[in-house]
Each structure stands twice: as structure tokens, then as C-alpha cells.
């Protein structure tokens, strides 16, 4: 781990093609990219941490310098512990910006050496959200344009079981 490494945290509930797009592009710019599946006790997840880790690992398999990890705690503690000084945050729309700016300022106050990079999702993924995908899948709608076949099957298994 070093100065040319970065972390891309998220709940990935589930991982989408928008997430994969950001990971691929960020992984080209850093020596190692740590994709950190976070577990926030204040959030209600559809998938368990283990299920989210499985989906992320499967969807990112083949990207050489990507390490999938998980963390249950304050993100800056993970970054400090692992000596990661670069943080990637994906943005889809202006609506994401205010929240992300607040989080960036707080993280920078807690870890002044941290550099935070905002990476816009490619246009074709700019409107995708995990919440939208879960809602469509819950009505048995096709989400194949936004998630891998593996993730789509996991959504159907979780949401449509009787």
C-alpha cells in the first residue's frame, strides 16, 4: 500500500455497471484500487455484507490491480490503517454533489493528508442507482442493462422468492 493507491468505498447494494465503470477508470490511474464494501449499521441493506462482497468480487474479477475488501467502521480509520491517501467518490448528478462535498470536507478534517477525487460516471450510467435497480427488480422488471447477469439473478432470488 502506498501513496499511489486509492480506495473506492460504497455499500454496493448491489453493484451496478455504473460502479464498475468508475472502478475500471480509477484502476487505470492508480497502482492499486481498494474497493471497500462498507457496512453502515444505520443503513438497511437488501444484501448481507457477505453477499455484497461476493457480487463485487464477481463483477470486478479480471481487473488486475483491484483489491476487494470490507470495513465496518469509520472510513478514514481504514484509510489510515492501510496507508491509503487517495479516495475516489463517484458522482452521477448534481444531486450527489452536496452530500459528497460535506463528506469530503469531514473526511479531510479527520485525515488532512487525504486527497479526494470525484469521478463522474460515464453519461450512459449517470442515472443508475442501486435503489432504482432494486425497485425495478422487485416488480420483476428487467435490470440487465444496469447490472451483470450474476447480480440480476441474486436480485431475483432475493426479491422474488415466495
Q: Could you list some keywords that capture this structure?
A:
about 160 residues, alpha/beta, Rossmann fold, three-stranded parallel β-sheet, two-stranded parallel ribbon, 6 helices, magnesium, ATP binding, nucleotide-binding, pantetheine-phosphate adenylyltransferase activity, Phosphopantetheine adenylyltransferase
Brief summary:
One of its GO terms (biological process) is coenzyme A biosynthetic process. The chain has 162 residues and is of the alpha/beta class.
How would you characterize the overall build of this protein?
This protein has a single domain, classed as HUPs (Rossmann fold), CATH 3.40.50.620. Helices cover 41% and strands 19% of the residues. The strands form two sheets. It has a three-stranded parallel sheet, with helices on both faces. The chain has a two-stranded parallel ribbon with strand order 4-5. The chain is built from six helices and five strands; from the N terminus they run E-H-E-H-E-H-E-H-E-H-H. With 162 residues, it is an alpha/beta fold.
CATH architecture call:
3-Layer(aba) Sandwich
Query: How far from one another are the termini?
Result: 45 Å
The share of residues in helices is 40-55%
CATH topology: Rossmann fold
Name the CATH superfamily assignment. HUPs
What kind of sheet is the major sheet? Answer: 3 strands, parallel
The shape, in one word, is globular
The total strand number stands at 5
Number of domains: 1
Topology:
Layout lengths: L4 E6 L6 H11 L4 E7 L10 H12 L5 E6 L3 H7 L4 E6 L2 H17 L4 E6 L9 H9 L10 H11 L3
Parallel strand pairs: 1-2, 2-3, 4-5
Amino acid at each position: 500500500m502506498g501513496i499511489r493507491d486509492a480506495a473506492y468505498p460504497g455499500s454496493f447494494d448491489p453493484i451496478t455497471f455504473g460502479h464498475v465503470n468508475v472502478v475500471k477508470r480509477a484502476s487505470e490511474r492508480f497502482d492499486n484500487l481498494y474497493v471497500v464494501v462498507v457496512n453502515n449499521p444505520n443503513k438497511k441493506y437488501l444484501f448481507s455484507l457477505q453477499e455484497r462482497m461476493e457480487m463485487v468480487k464477481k463483477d470486478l474479477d479480471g481487473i488486475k490491480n483491484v483489491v476487494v475488501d470490507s470495513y465496518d467502521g469509520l472510513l478514514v480509520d481504514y484509510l489510515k490503517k492501510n496507508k491509503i491517501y487517495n479516495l475516489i467518490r463517484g458522482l452521477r448528478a448534481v444531486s450527489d454533489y452536496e452530500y459528497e462535498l460535506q463528506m469530503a470536507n469531514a473526511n479531510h478534517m479527520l485525515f488532512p493528508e487525504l486527497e479526494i477525487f470525484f469521478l463522474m460516471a460515464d453519461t450512459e450510467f449517470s442515472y443508475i442507482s442501486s435503489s432504482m435497480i432494486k425497485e425495478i427488480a422487485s416488480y420483476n422488471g428487467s435490470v440487465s442493462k444496469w447490472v451483470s447477469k450474476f447480480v440480476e439473478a441474486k436480485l431475483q432470488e432475493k426479491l422474488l422468492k415466495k
